[in-house]
Amino acid sequence: MGSPMLSVEHVDVHYGAAQALRDVSLTAEIGQVTAVLGRNGVGKTTLLRAVVGRNPVSAGRIAWDGTDLARLRGDARARAGVASVPQGREIFPLLTVRENLETGFAVLPRAERRIPDEVFTLFPVLRDMMGRRGGDLSGGQQQQLAIGRALVMKPRLLVLDEPTEGIQPSIIQDIGRAIRYLRDRGDMAIVLVEQYFDFARDLCDTFHVMDRGQIVKSGTRADMNETEVRGLLTV
C-alpha cells in the first residue's frame, strides 16, 4: 500500500441553500484505482469538481500530497500534478487532435513539452488522426483524446468522470486497459467516478458508494458484496 496522496476530509459543498455533499471523506493512493459509484445526481460529479477546484467546499479539507487544494487555483492544482477528464470530455472541437493534446503543455516546463509515446501506445487511433479536428472524432475517440490530453500533463492524480458514458463497448475495453496500465505503472493515483458497475468493479482497488450527497458504503474490491453494491446503484 502506498501513502494516501489524496485526502478528502469531512467535506461539505453547498449550491446556495442546497447541500450537495455532506461530510464526505475518502483517500486515494498512488498505484491504486479508487472508484466512486452511485446513481445520477447523488453528488459524484460535485465531489470531483471540488477535488479539481471547480467547486468551493463549505466545510472540510481536500489535500493532495499534504497541500491543501482549496488554497490553489485550478492552474496551480494542475502544476501540482492534478489532471481531470471531465464528464462530456470538453475537448476543443475546432482544434486538431495534435493541438488538443498540446493544450496539456501549458502546465509543463518548456523542456518537457512533448506528447508522451504512451498516449499513442494506449490509443493508437490518435496517432492516425493528429491532423483531424476534435469535433470530427466519434464520442469514443474524443474520450480517448481527453484522457490522452490529461496524460500529456504528466499527472500524479488522474480524476475520470464517467469515462464510459455513451461510448461503444470496444472503446470501453481500450479505456479499461489504459486505466489498468496507468495504475500498474505505479506513479499516479486514479479516481474513477462511474455508474457502470462492471467496469468500476473490474478496475477498482477500493470503492465508495454515494447516495444523496453522502458516502453510504466503502471498502476494498476484495471485500465487496456485489449484490449489496448493485442494489445501492439501482434503488
Short summary of the structure?
This protein is α/β, with parallel strands linked by helices and 235 residues long. It is built from 9 helices and 10 strands. The mean pLDDT is 93.
Please tell me about this protein's structure.
With 235 residues, this protein is α/β, with parallel strands linked by helices. It is 34% helix and 28% strand. The protein has helices at 44-52, 74-79, 97-102, 117-122, 124-128, 139-152, 169-185, 197-203, 226-234; strands at residues 4-15, 18-29, 33-37, 59-64, 67-68, 82-85, 157-161, 189-194, 206-211, 214-220. A 6-stranded mixed beta sheet has the order 6-7-8-3-9-10, with helices on both faces. Strands 2-1-4-5 form a 4-stranded antiparallel beta sheet, with helices on one face. A hairpin with a 2-residue loop joins β4 and β5 (67-68). The protein is globular, with a radius of gyration of 17 Å.
Radius of gyration: 17 Å
Annotation field: number of helices? 9
Oligomer: single chain
Mean pLDDT: 93
List keywords for this structure.
235 residues; alpha/beta; 10 strands; Rossmann fold; four-stranded antiparallel sheet; six-stranded mixed sheet
SSE topology:
Blueprint: E1 4-15, E2 18-29, E3 33-37, H1 44-52, E4 59-64, E5 67-68, H2 74-79, E6 82-85, H3 97-102, H4 117-122, H5 124-128, H6 139-152, E7 157-161, H7 169-185, E8 189-194, H8 197-203, E9 206-211, E10 214-220, H9 226-234
